[in-house]
């Protein structure tokens, strides 16, 4: 650090500095006598991130910039310090590496206390060291609380942005499904009529049988896609909510899925702690649709060839400070690569498009759980370790 020394620190220079509030006037003067006052030009680098710490700086006049390097190695300003603030105080204790770079933003006047000078003062006086440690602990607690609040705020902003993104998808697909329903219905009816006429006709009319069947088949796929769009919207259902045993509801959904999709060959086992019912209140249709999509996801991706076991567990949990149930659906398939996990709830994202999948199942799950079911959904998967999707749903009041 390039600086001009103004000489020994005057008496009272540390008065009003928070770090030394617990010190008596005589103790502050004793500390001040060990340091010096310096003047620094704008742009001067006072300390560098990673360098060994060897001094405390008290800002008497001027402003400094606090810089840290991001993962790409670029210096990013994270804070500014003003008169009365300190930096480098931890270095007085451990002499460890600097956690940030400090640069003079304006002309500065600083009180500088070298670590060796400070240790010469406090080692014979444990009371001074104890006072300083108490103040440092307070500052660390304040910094920890601030970081926790910033982290929470960041997570809330990210969650709100994610919800906004899904809402925009919902609005788009709902409008599209509404516009497509009527013309698709007309086309399906017409295709079916053409196929009937072709089957009843003779000669050249018979040549239209196969094209008519292909037309009807592909229109059926389009209708299924529109139905999936409608399910993504996951709006309130006309059925009134009912109080259910979540375990029995999951078993019922598994039985219905087995009846509707015998070729999936899934073996679903539902477990819960204790003998009492897991009371949950909501629309059965939304819960069943969610579980159907998760069972289908396991059948298509975990066991595409020969079927397999799916475990459904229900355990007590908390959701926003209120009692909830965590319903986990786990398979023992090949798992999901890390690069795909972040996009699994995105509409039209699928790792099996070559096998004809549309990539809407987990989008339906996400929108149904966070929408009408009023819960949250998380996914945990590792290559070779299977996949678990957990629905956290509020318990019945």
Write a compact overview of the structure shown.
With 397 residues, the protein is an alpha+beta fold.
Radius of gyration: 33 Å
Low-confidence region ranges: none
Mean pLDDT: 80
For the termini, the CA-CA separation is 64 Å
Blueprint of the fold:
Layout lengths: L3 E5 L16 H10 L1 E5 L4 E3 L7 E7 L2 E6 L5 E7 L4 E2 L3 H4 L6 E4 L3 E7 H8 L3 H75 L8 H25 L8 E4 H15 L5 E6 L7 E4 L1 H19 L5 E12 L2 E10 L6 H4 L19 H10 L5 E6 L5 E8 L3
Parallel strand pairs: 11-13
Antiparallel strand pairs: 1-2, 2-9, 3-8, 4-7, 4-9, 5-6, 5-8, 10-12, 13-14, 14-16, 15-16
Helix pairs in contact: 4-5, 5-9, 6-7, 7-9
Verbal overview:
This protein is of the alpha+beta class. It has 2 domains: about 5-125, Jelly Rolls (Sandwich), CATH 2.60.120.10; about 240-395, Heat Shock Protein 90, CATH 3.30.565. The protein has helices at about 25-35, 90-95, 115-120, 125-200, 210-235, 245-260, 285-300, 340, 360-370; strands spanning about 5-10, 35-40, 45, 55-60, 65-70, 75-80, 85, 100-105, 110-115, 240-245, 265-270, 280, 310-320, 320-330, 375-380, 385-395. Strands 1-2-9-4-7 form a 5-stranded antiparallel sheet. The chain is elongated, with a radius of gyration of 33 Å. The model has no long low-confidence stretch (mean pLDDT about 80).
């Amino acid at each position: 650090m390039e600086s001009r020394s103004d000489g020994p620190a005057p008496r009272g220079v540390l008065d009003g500095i928070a770090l030394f509030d617990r010190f008596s006037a005589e103790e502050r003067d004793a500390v001040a006598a060990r340091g010096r006052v310096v003047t620094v030009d704008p742009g001067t680098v006072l300390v560098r991130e990673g360098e060994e710490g060897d001094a405390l700086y008290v800002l008497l006049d001027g402003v400094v910039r606090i810089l840290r390097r991001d993962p790409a190695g670029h210096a990013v300003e994270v804070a500014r310090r003003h008169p009365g603030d300190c930096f480098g105080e931890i270095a007085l204790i451990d002499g460890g590496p600097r956690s940030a770079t400090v640069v003079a933003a304006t002309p500065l006047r600083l009180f500088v206390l070298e670590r060796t000078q400070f240790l010469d003062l406090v080692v014979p006086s444990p009371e001074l060291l104890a006072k300083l440690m108490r103040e440092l602990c307070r500052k660390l607690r304040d910094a920890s609380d601030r970081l926790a609040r910033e982290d929470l705020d960041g997570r809330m902003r990210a969650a709100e942005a994610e919800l906004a993104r899904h809402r925009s998808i919902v609005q788009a697909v709902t409008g599209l499904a509404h516009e497509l329903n009527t013309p698709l219905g007309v086309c399906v009816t017409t295709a079916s009529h053409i196929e009937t006429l072709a089957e009843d006709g003779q000669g050249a009319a018979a040549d239209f049988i196969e094209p008519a069947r292909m037309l009807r088949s592909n229109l059926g796929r389009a209708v299924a896609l529109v139905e999936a769009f409608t399910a993504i919207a996951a709006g309130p259902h006309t059925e009134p909510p009912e109080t259910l045993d979540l375990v029995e509801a999951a078993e019922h959904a598994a039985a219905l899925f087995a009846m509707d999709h015998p070729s999936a060959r899934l073996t679903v086992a539902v477990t819960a702690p204790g003998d009492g019912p897991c009371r949950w209140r909501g629309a059965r249709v939304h819960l069943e649709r969610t579980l159907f999509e998760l069972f289908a996801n396991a059948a298509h991706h975990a066991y595409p060839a020969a079927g397999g076991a799916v475990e459904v567990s229900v355990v007590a949990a908390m959701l926003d400070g209120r009692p909830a149930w965590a319903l986990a659906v786990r398979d023992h398939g090949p798992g999901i690569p890390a690069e795909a996990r972040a996009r699994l709830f995105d509409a039209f994202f699928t790792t099996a498009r070559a096998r004809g999948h549309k990539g809407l199942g987990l989008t339906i799950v996400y929108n149904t759980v966070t929408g009408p079911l009023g819960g949250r959904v998380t996914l945990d998967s590792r290559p070779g370790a299977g996949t678990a999707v957990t629905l956290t749903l509020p318990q019945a009041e």
